[in-house]
């Protein structure tokens, strides 16, 4: 059914649950996972960080790589084909740009209901909401709910 699943990751529990769901779906459909981590550079400026800008960006790139490598390891344990992408920019815009790009051939986006940046969600709306509204592929939204009590 779906052959290329885009999975935006930010290290949050919701993103981790989305990854688990994407792995299950990809196994069922023999699909490839495209793991995406967006470095949100919209929250600070080079001027505001002074000479520390390069160090902050390097640290964020390192963290992005760690998030993607951990996700890749889980997907490869499930014998799935995986690609990893790191991009910089506004996460919601980058996700939509990649999903809508003709050459990406994304069939489905699997993402968490909310991520790591609560302040941004309050001010400008959620990344998930934006992606649902603007992405051409279908979107599955996964929620990290606590286990139900018996």
Automatic annotation (TrEMBL):
Limits of the UspA domain: 1-142
PANTHER family the UniProt entry points to: STRESS RESPONSE PROTEIN NHAX, UNIVERSAL STRESS PROTEIN UP12
CDD domains in UniProt: USP-like
Full protein name: UspA family nucleotide-binding protein
Signal sequence interval, chain numbering: none
Keywords linked to the UniProt accession: Coiled coil
Keyword check for Coiled coil: yes
Organism: Levilactobacillus parabrevis ATCC 53295
Annotated InterPro entries: Rossmann-like_a/b/a_fold (IPR014729), Universal_stress_UspA (IPR006015), UspA (IPR006016)
Family the UniProt entry places it in: Belongs to the universal stress protein A family.
């Amino acid at each position: 059914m779906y052959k290329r699943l885009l999975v935006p990751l930010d290290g949050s529990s919701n993103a981790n649950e989305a990854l688990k769901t994407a792995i299950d779906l990809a196994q069922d459909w023999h699909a490839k996972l495209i793991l995406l981590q967006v470095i949100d550079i919209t929250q600070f400026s080079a001027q505001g960080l002074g000479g520390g800008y390069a160090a902050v960006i390097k640290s964020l790139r390192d963290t992005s790589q760690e998030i993607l490598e951990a996700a890749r390891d889980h997907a490869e344990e499930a014998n799935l084909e995986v690609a990893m992408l790191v991009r910089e920019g506004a996460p919601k815009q980058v996700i939509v740009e990649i999903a809508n790009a003709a050459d990406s051939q994304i069939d489905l986006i699997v993402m968490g209901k909310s991520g790591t940046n609560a302040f941004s969600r309050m001010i400008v709306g959620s990344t998930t909401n934006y992606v649902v509204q603007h992405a051409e592929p279908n979107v599955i939204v996964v929620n990290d709910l606590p286990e139900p009590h018996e």
